[in-house]
Amino acid sequence: MDYHKPVLLHESVDLMAIKPEGTYVDLTFGGGGHSQEILNRLGPNGKLFGFDQDPDAKDNLLEDPRFTLIESNFRHLKRMLRFQGARKVDGILGDFGISSHQVDEGSRGFSLRYDAPLDMRMNPEKAFSAKDVLNRYSESQLKDLFSRYGEIRAALPLSRAIIQARPLENTFDLVAVAEKFAPRNKHGQFLAQVFQAVRIEVNEELKVIEEMLEQAPEVLNPGGRLVCISYHSLEDRLVKNFFRSGNFDGKAEKDFYGNLIRPLEPITRKPIAPEANEINENPRARSAKLRAAELKNTND
Q1: How far apart are CA 177 and CA 166, in angstroms?
Q2: If you count Cβ atoms within 10 Å of the first and of the last residue's Cβ in the chain, which end, N or C, has fewer?
Q3: For 184-209, what is the HEC assignment?
């Protein structure tokens, strides 16, 4: 089963500073590319936990006694690790967004290239689908998600057109309504933004990242690292703000001595982007931004 090539593979795993006997987490197991590289650097007593809510990921299971696949959304990071008896870990890697496998699996409804039921659920067992969003949301709810998650200027007329076209059943129904609002020469980009907005809403993607970021300092050992790969500005802003200021608003708070109050210390001052040759080989890498931070040692 084809999954995307792991983006920024060596750069991301290098930043985790793998200790051979350490315990690590891959939040987005997918095709197992990042996990395999982490295992390559672990010793015989090291441990790796991989999270994935998509049942298709089981087809890529790594036959390695040091690896455990946790079939769960990574928003449950702390609870699922405790269930596995791992209260603290030495590093966490998150490669956010959608996998190319999910896009290429036309029946899942993620792609505007295939006519398929409006689904877009990363976890097919989730009750709420794209069809529910597009057929049940009010005009104001639709406008809010298109402007916030798709950064679409024509959010209001698009929302009205969707309501008038109901019921929408398939992806091509959504394309037929949305393409009328696409700016000239930006047809594909606009439709991709529309699909992105609905997908983020269905899967609560930004909320999930926020919940994980808040839990990460609680499960990391002092000196442990959190490494995140984002694919659009909404994801990257959450990571950047949390690393820099310990909150999602980006407002720095200082203690009595003038020190920043934040649990994680940024390692990357600016995000790391893929080299041109990686983008040529793997177009999905084009928008990737890599950031890393380390849990402060309280004894410092």
Answers
A1: 10
A2: C
A3: CCCHHHHHHHHHHHHHHHHHCHHHHH
pLDDT digits (tens, 9 = 90+) for 115-170: 999 999 998 888 899 999 999 999 999 999 999 999 999 999 999 999 999 999 99
Distances (CA, A) of 242 to 28, 245, 246: 20, 5, 4
At 261, list the tokens: 């109050």
- Which residues are CB-contacts of 187 (< 8 A; sequence separation ≥ 6)? 179
H-helix or E-strand spanning residue 295: strand 289-295
Only one residue has tokens 């708070």, namely: 253
Distance CA 290, CA 9 (A): 10
Distance CA 146, CA 140 (A): 10
Fold type of domain 9-100+205-295: Rossmann fold (3.40.50)
* Phi, psi for 243 (deg, rounded to 5): -65, -45
3-class DSSP state of 228: strand
- For residue 52, the one-letter residue type is D
H or E element that contains 136: helix 130-136
- Tokens 């999905």, located at residue: 284
CATH entry 1.10.287.110 includes domain 106-203: no
Domains of the chain, residue spans: 9-100+205-295, 106-203
How many other C-beta atoms are found inside a 10 Å radius of the C-beta of residue 191? 19
